[in-house]
C-alpha cells in the first residue's frame, strides 16, 4: 500500500446516515444504484481475499446491508464462485424481492438458515446481516447463526461493519460471542466502530461527490484509476 495514501475519516452513526440522506436527496442517487455499487464492491473485495475455487456463504439481513449481500452473491457467482445465501428474514419490498429473484435465476441457493453441513473446505463467509443502523444486541435467529459461524472458524469478510459490532464503539466487551472477520469492506466511508480493526480493510462505494465530502468534512483517499475498491493501510485514521 503506498505510503503516500492520504488519511481517511471514520464517521459516527449520525454522519453515516447523513451521507445516505444526502446521496438520495440533493445529490440525486437512487437506492438501487447505491446497493448495486456497494454489492459489487463487496464482491470485488471478497475476490481479492479468497481465491477461486471457493464457496461463498453470504449472510443476508433484512435491510440495505442484506441487499448489498444479495448483489454481492450474484456478482460472486458470475466471478466463478459457488454461492449459498442464508437469508433468515425476507422482507416483501420490491427491491429485496427483485434482488432475491436475480440470485435465483443464477441458480444460487437461498436458505432460511445455515445448512447442517457447512462446506468448510475452501469456503468463506460474506457477512451482510447488519449495517451501520444496527443497535445491539443481536436477536434471534441471527444470534445463533453468527455463533455457528464463529464456532465453524470459517474465514469471514464483513460488509460495512461486522455484524454484532456497535457502529461507534466496536465489538461488544460483555463476553458476547462476536465475529472477528479476517477482512472488511467499508462502504462510502469507514465507521467509528472499526477504527481498531486489524484485518485487511477495503473501502468501496465510489459515489461520494466532492460537494458531499466538503459539506461533511470527510476525507477519503482518491481511488486509483478505474478501481471500484481500494485497500486501506492499517489504522489509517484522521
Describe this structure in words.
- This is NAD(P)H-hydrate epimerase.
- Residues 16-226 form the YjeF N-terminal domain.
- This protein has 238 residues and is an alpha/beta fold.
- Helix content is 32%, strand content 16%.
- It is built from 6 helices and 8 strands.
- Helix 3 runs parallel beside helix 4.
- The longest helix has 19 residues, at 31-49.
- It is globular.
- The two termini are 17 Å apart.
- N/C terminus separation: 17 Å
Kindly estimate the percentage of residues that lie in beta strands according to DSSP.
Answer: 15-25%
- The share of residues in helices is 25-40%
- The strand line-up of the biggest sheet is 3-2-1-4-5-6-7-8
The average pLDDT value, as a whole number, equals: 91
Q: Helix and strand string, N-terminal first?
A: HHEHEHEEHEEEHE
What structural class should be given to the helix and strand makeup? alpha/beta
Keywords: Isomerase, Metal-binding, NAD, NADP, Nucleotide-binding, Potassium
Protein name: NAD(P)H-hydrate epimerase
InterPro entries: YjeF_N_dom, YjeF_N_dom_sf, YJEFN_prot_NAXE-like
GO molecular function: metal ion binding; NAD(P)HX epimerase activity; nucleotide binding
Amino acid at each position: 500500500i503506498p505510503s503516500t495514501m492520504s488519511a481517511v475519516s471514520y464517521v459516527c452513526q449520525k454522519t453515516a446516515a447523513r451521507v445516505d440522506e444526502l446521496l438520495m436527496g440533493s445529490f440525486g442517487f437512487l437506492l438501487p444504484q447505491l446497493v448495486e455499487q456497494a454489492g459489487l464492491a463487496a464482491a470485488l473485495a471478497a475476490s481479492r481475499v479468497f481465491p477461486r475455487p471457493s464457496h461463498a456463504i453470504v449472510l443476508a439481513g433484512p435491510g440495505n446491508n442484506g441487499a448489498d449481500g444479495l448483489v454481492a452473491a450474484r456478482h460472486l457467482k458470475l466471478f466463478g464462485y459457488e454461492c449459498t445465501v442464508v437469508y433468515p428474514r425476507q422482507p416483501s419490498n420490491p427491491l429485496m424481492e427483485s434482488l432475491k429473484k436475480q440470485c435465483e435465476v443464477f441458480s444460487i441457493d437461498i436458505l432460511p438458515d445455515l445448512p447442517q453441513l457447512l462446506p468448510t473446505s475452501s469456503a468463506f463467509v460474506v457477512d451482510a446481516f447488519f449495517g451501520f443502523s444496527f443497535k445491539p444486541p443481536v436477536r434471534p435467529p441471527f444470534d445463533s447463526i453468527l455463533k455457528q459461524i464463529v464456532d465453524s472458524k470459517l474465514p469471514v469478510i464483513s460488509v460495512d461493519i461486522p455484524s454484532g459490532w456497535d457502529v461507534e464503539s466496536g465489538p461488544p466487551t460483555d463476553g458476547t460471542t462476536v465475529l472477528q472477520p479476517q477482512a472488511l469492506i467499508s462502504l462510502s466511508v469507514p465507521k467509528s466502530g472499526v477504527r481498531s480493526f486489524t484485518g485487511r480493510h477495503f473501502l468501496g462505494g465510489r459515489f461520494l461527490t466532492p460537494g458531499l465530502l466538503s459539506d461533511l468534512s470527510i476525507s477519503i483517499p482518491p481511488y486509483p484509476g478505474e478501481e471500484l475498491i481500494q485497500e486501506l493501510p492499517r489504522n489509517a485514521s484522521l
